[in-house]
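Q: I'm writing a short methods note and want an example of a predicted protein-small molecule complex. Could you take the sequence and the SMILES for magnesium ion and return the bound structure as tokens? Please keep the output block clean; save any remarks for afterwards.
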Amino acid sequence: MTTSPLIVLEDVEKRFEDRRARRKTVALEGLSLGVAEGEFVCLLGPSGCGKSTVLDLLAGFEQPTRGRVTIDGKPVGRPSPDRGIVFQEATLFPWLSVIDNITFAPRLAGRPASEYRPRAQELIEMMGLCGFEHHAVYELSGGMRQRVAIARAWISQPLLLLMDEPFGALDAQTRLAMQELLLAAREQRRSTVLFVTHDIEEALFLSDRIAIMSGRPGRIVEEIIVPYPRPRAYQEIIATRSFGELKRSILATLREQAARPQHATTESLPHGDDLRSYSRSH
Ligand SMILES: Nc1ncnc2c1ncn2[C@@H]1O[C@H](COP(=O)(O)OP(=O)(O)OP(=O)(O)O)[C@@H](O)[C@H]1O
Ligand SMILES: [Mg+2]
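A: Understood, no commentary inside the block.
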């Protein structure tokens, strides 16, 4: 029996139009991707190809201009805590302390403190933030802010995690520790993860499948099944022959895509306000 994937993006187009400046950017075109429940998929692709846009569509911050975006068979509605989101740049509430940032969603939902406090404390320890619970965000380093943002997304134990280069700003050791933490957390609760990264090794260590995007307008050009059984140990995986081979092949595809002219980038819209007739005739 085949069940339909939890996340479905079908022939998605996303164009941004700035009527005042008479510009449009086609970020995504003909993008199709499915992510099964419990699957961990990494999205790789050249800068500006539309990876963050894909996450924005799934988070409910943006709507596709064509095609279908569904989660569990339903069109994506407003942003909701069932979808934990870690943005490319740590976006914390600057006026709240570390602990208040982490516990923001359960407090907003009116959950009792007895429910979320122990979990918050556990996350603070996991993220190496002990002693900083009551610090303000501006008193933290960039990497620490990103760890607070990750803890904030994890506190609600969402079944779907959308992560946009969450470990990009961390040093190599912390990054590996965070990757291991994420995998360990998923052993306990098998959330579905869509994870954007520029780091091929990270994608091979973390995911079940890697989807590679073309240059803009972005679509999926290649999907690679990652063959390593779980639980995974980084040292063992990087020592395998297939790791080097997969890494080389993915790098070649990415280079090829990055070298393609990223056309249909920012086209000027015609003068006048009749954008509808423009889109009909193009
Ligand atoms: N709100 C917006 N308004 C107008 N254009 C946008 C908007 N958001 C994204 N874009 C454009 O869409 C394209 C894709 O952007 P996106 O941020 O999704 O790329 P990305 O793959 O995440 O890049 P990076 O790897 O650098 O983070 C870019 O050309 C960008 O300028
Ligand atoms: Mg991005």
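A: Remarks, as requested: The pocket of magnesium ion (ligand 2) is lined by residues 51-52, 88, 164 (CB under 6 Å). Residues 95-157 form one domain.
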